[in-house]
From TrEMBL, chain A:
One Pfam family named in its UniProt record: SBP_bac_1
Official protein name in the record: Extracellular solute-binding protein
InterPro entries, sorted: Bact_solute-bd_prot1, SBP, TAT_signal
Record-linked PROSITE patterns: TAT (PS51318)
Domain of life: Bacteria
Organism the protein comes from: Actinomadura violacea
Signal peptide stretch: 1-29
UniProt keyword terms in alphabetical order: Signal
Keyword Signal: yes
TrEMBL record, chain B:
InterPro entries named in the record: ABC_transporter_permease, MetI-like, MetI-like_sf
Bilayer topology annotation: Multi-pass membrane protein
Region (Disordered) residue spans: 1-27
SUPFAM superfamilies: MetI-like
A Pfam entry, by short name: BPD_transp_1
Record's compositionally biased regions (Basic and acidic residues): 12-26
Source organism phylogeny: Bacteria, Bacillati, Actinomycetota, Actinomycetes, Streptosporangiales
Protein name (Swiss-Prot/TrEMBL): Sugar ABC transporter permease
Homology family: Belongs to the binding-protein-dependent transport system permease family.
Chief location: membrane
Length: 431, 333
């Protein structure tokens, strides 16, 4: 025959070239990111944590409504469970590409992403939108005068309690001081009620106690000083540990709290929601999660009081510890993403979000959709004299995690108050 | 095509007389030998490429980054030499990891493997429903670690879990109710129980395969010579099963050193590090605290421990089983 047969070598070359082409093709295709296509179509990658009601239903609804109004935009919403989301974001941050829209709590974690050049500066692209939003709720996302996220929720931590359990234990009014609080814990125990539910496995719910106690003992100056000097050996922090130990020694938590999650089945929120524990120290989302995790919630029996003052402490009862949720944009996010965030917070959607019970208002004048308890939270926030962001968000991740780990060890009886202060200082100093 | 493709071996066959392969190799014309090498290289290239890309290069990168204080962003610049390793040696959590790792390895060897061997011997007999038992005992191994972890998280849920219901009110074990994964004293034993449940079926399967290779004639001969069941097991089955046992011990130890998923899902290493393993500590520092340099040092330590163990074990224990494959450089004998 006239056709020369291929030599072995060229045969192998052809095969391997083919193999390389086959493997590379999907890789190359995957490199095209979610920006504008040639036909004007835009895909917005939105990564969120709405795995529980009500946002689980509301978010897709808002996305659909936006898509209907803007046929050229497609919104790809991915919801991950809270802890899974944090892990995923860590991996994405390390890989150098963040989703177009993602949830952020601001502080040190967001700062790190900004320093890595992965986050869009929203100060001018979203200036119109940001003007409609209360200034306090923007605080966690502001660095060097620039704003990097649009808040959609802002709140603070306080005690959510079961009024019926308190009445049964003979407690007339919520405690105003730490001593009264400890006394009420004893009364609840005596009445056969688990005083406090705690998600020890997740660690951050325990950190709230230590953080609030440090604020109450040392006041805002102590917190600011520690953040500046990376020194947590001030009396405020050892004192916080000692007061926390007083509480731990009363054994106030539900059985097995050290392996209980916050929103996991049988965890902290589920215990309170099912009426198995009298209270939890948690943010503004507590009632919604209690309802979702237990299937029912405690409805009108739910009450709220601010973290009590510590006798002889420098901090005021009106200093608040909290934070919010915001949406930040990846640096390559299309301009439609900003428009979508504005759509999400328009009067109609903001009213639905706030009245759903899961969120606190961020848009000026949206407070009217609040129920009585969250009105209390909003008022406390509105009249606050000092604001401290969640420690595991305010500090760089290594310090925040050390606070969580060390406080968890203290609550587990494996570390002394002094050791906690030393460990956190060591982690902060080696940053 | 007018003639079929010829492969190097076939081409060599034509001129082969009575030479050994080695002599032929050394005396074949240079050009032909080179061409043989080229073909070999092409065949190996895809595998080598993947091996370099996903095994050797990452190891080298981890070694490199472990010498830096590095947060995982940008280039590592803050060179600290062996600082991360010094910190590691002094870290009580990492020392605890080593101790807990050793404990898990020892427990696996003295609890898990004997259970697997016993079950395998039992299931090697003719009995009704043998295939069903084999499938049932092997099933946990097929389950993903995450699913098994979630499952046992629910079983050991304090207060309302199945485990609490079972032991509640019983003497001796009643005190375990509400503890399990939640108490630093009971978390590791509980974890080990789950591990045993998860992995003993795998070792049982290996042993079953090994037992098929024990010739019935020898057992029969031993029985005729008057050996009882224990004697037959001790002096015939066990020695003939030795290669299988050695492999199973090897897999068990390496698996224990690298234990991660099951721990992460059930306890995330808690309460207070009581179930933390090296891999969990590495993850905590790398992906929770963004201390990639330090996390790399942990991974290098894990790699060294695994490698030293593998080499020593292959050199001394697996020598007879692997003769020619690893210990004596392929066919160079």
């Amino acid at each position: 025959m006239g056709i020369p047969h291929p030599s072995r070598r060229s045969f192998l070359t052809a095969v391997s070239a083919g193999a390389v082409a086959l493997t590379a093709a999907p890789l190359l295709a995957a490199c095209g990111d979610g920006g504008s296509g040639s036909d004007g179509k835009v895909t917005i990658e939105w990564m969120d944590i709405a795995t529980t009601e009500p946002s689980k239903t509301i978010y897709p609804k808002i996305a659909k409504a936006y898509e209907a109004a803007h046929p050229n935009v497609k919104i790809k919403l991915t919801n991950l469970e809270n802890e899974a989301f944090k892990s995923k974001m860590t991996a994405l941050t390390a890989s150098g590409k963040l989703p177009d829209i993602f949830v952020t709590w601001g502080g040190g974690v967001l700062k790190q992403q900004i320093d890595a050049g992965l986050v869009k500066d929203l100060t001018s692209p979203a200036s119109g939108l940001l003007n409609t939003i209360t200034p306090v709720s923007q605080k966690p996302y502001q660095f060097d005068g620039k704003t990097y996220a649009v808040p959609y929720d802002m709140g603070m931590v306080g005690f959510w309690y079961n009024k019926r359990h308190f009445a049964k234990a003979g407690i007339k009014a919520p405690p105003k001081t730490w001593a009264e609080f400890l006394d009420d814990v004893r009364k609840l125990k005596a009445a056969g009620i688990t005083p406090i539910a705690l998600g020890g496995k997740d660690k951050w719910p325990g950190m709230y106690y230590w953080a609030y106690l440090a604020m109450r003992v040392g006041g805002m100056p102590a917190m600011e000083q520690a953040a500046k000097t990376n020194d947590f050996t001030a009396p405020a922090f050892a004192g916080a540990g000692q007061h926390l130990k007083e509480l731990v020694d009363l054994q106030p938590f539900q059985p097995g709290f050290q392996n209980a999650g916050f929103d996991a089945p049988g965890g902290e929120a589920a215990s309170v929601g099912a009426g198995k524990a009298a209270m939890e120290l948690m943010g503004q989302w507590a009632p919604a999660v209690e309802k979702d995790a237990s299937g029912k919630g405690i409805g009108d029996d739910e009450g709220w009081f601010p973290f009590p003052a510590v006798d002889g402490g420098q901090g005021a009862l009106t200093d608040v510890f909290g934070g919010g949720n915001g949406h930040a944009l990846g640096k390559d996010a299309p301009k439609e993403a900003v428009d979508f965030l504005a759509f999400m917070l328009n009067a109609e959607n903001e009213h639905e979000l706030v009245s759903s019970g899961a969120f606190m208002p961020v848009v000026k004048g949206a407070e009217n959709a609040l129920d009585a308890n969250r009105k209390q939270v909003a008022d406390a926030l509105g009249t606050s004299t000092g604001f401290q962001l969640y420690l595991d968000q305010a500090f760089p991740p290594a310090v925040g995690q050390q606070v969580n780990d060390s406080v968890a060890a203290l609550i587990g009886g494996k570390a002394t108050p002094e050791q906690v202060a030393q460990q956190v200082t060591k982690a902060a100093k080696s940053q | 095509m007018t003639e079929p493709l010829t492969l190097p071996a076939a081409a060599g066959d034509r001129r082969r007389t009575a030479r050994t392969p080695r002599e032929r190799g050394s005396r074949a014309p240079l050009g032909r030998r080179l061409r043989g090498w080229a073909a070999t290289t092409w065949f190996l290239l895809p595998a080598l490429l993947l091996f370099f890309l996903f095994v050797l290069i990452p190891i080298a990168v981890a070694l490199y980054t472990s010498l830096f204080k590095w947060g995982g962003f940008g280039r590592p610049e803050d060179f600290v030499g062996l600082g991360n390793y010094r910190k590691l040696a002094a870290d009580p959590v990492f020392r605890g990891d080593l101790w807990r790792g050793l404990l898990i390895v020892v427990l696996s060897l003295v609890v898990q493997l004997p259970i697997a061997l016993g079950t395998a011997v039992l299931l090697n007999q003719r009995m009704r429903g043998r295939a069903v038992y084999r499938a049932v005992f092997f099933a946990p191994y097929i389950l993903s670690e995450v699913i098994a972890g979630v499952l046992f998280g629910i079983i050991f849920l304090p207060g309302s879990g199945l485990a609490d219901e079972l032991v509640g009110g019983l003497p001796l074990v009643g005190g375990l109710a509400g503890k399990w994964f939640s108490d630093p004293g009971t978390a590791l034993p509980t974890l080990f129980a789950v591990m045993t449940w998860k992995y003993f079926g795998f070792h049982m399967m290996i042993y079953l395969a090994g037992l098929q290779g024990v010739p019935a004639e020898i057992l029969e001969a031993a029985a005729i010579d008057g050996a009882g069941p224990w004697r037959r097991f001790r002096s015939v089955t066990l020695p003939l099963l030795a290669p299988t046992l050695r492999i199973s011990v090897f897999l068990s130890v390496i698996g224990s050193i690298q234990l991660f998923d099951l721990v992460w899902v059930t306890t995330t290493g808690g309460p207070t590090n009581s179930t933390e393993t090296m891999a969990v500590t590495m993850f905590q520092f790398g992906f929770k605290r963004y201390q990639m340099g330090y996390a790399s040092a942990i991974s290098v330590a894990m790699f060294l421990i695994s490698m030293v163990f593998s080499l020593l074990y292959q050199r001394y224990a697996l020598r007879r089983d692997l003769e020619g494959a690893v210990t004596s450089a392929g066919g160079a004998r």
